Amino acid sequence: MPHLDLPLDPALRTALDDLADAQGRTPEEVALHAVRAYLSQEGARVRAVAEGLAHHHADLLRRLGE
């Protein structure tokens, strides 16, 4: 799996390390979980916005397709 270097300020790195330690996971596992959750949430948000725009402009989109 390709790697991603993620520069973290010392306070953020400490918080990540502390959370990972409390959960019995590695910092990399915690960060990967956070990235996956963020992508899922943002993907859902973007889809909802796109669906709202499509619904709002359905008549225009239909006419453009004619």
Structural description of this entry:
It comes from Streptomyces iakyrus. This is CopG family ribbon-helix-helix protein. This protein has 66 residues and is mostly helical. It is 79% helix and 0% strand. The chain has helices at 10-23, 27-56, 58-65.
Give the number of DSSP strands.
0
Number of distinct helices: 3
Approximately how much beta-strand content do the residues carry? under 5%
What pattern of helices and strands is seen along the backbone? HHH
Radius of gyration (CA) equals 20 Å
Main sheet properties: none
Structural class: mainly alpha
Question: What is the residue-averaged pLDDT?
Answer: 93
Shape: rod-shaped
> Multimeric state of these chains?
single chain
Helix content: over 70%
Tell me the span between the first and last alpha carbons: 46 Å
Which consecutive residue ranges, at least 5 long each, have pLDDT under 50? none
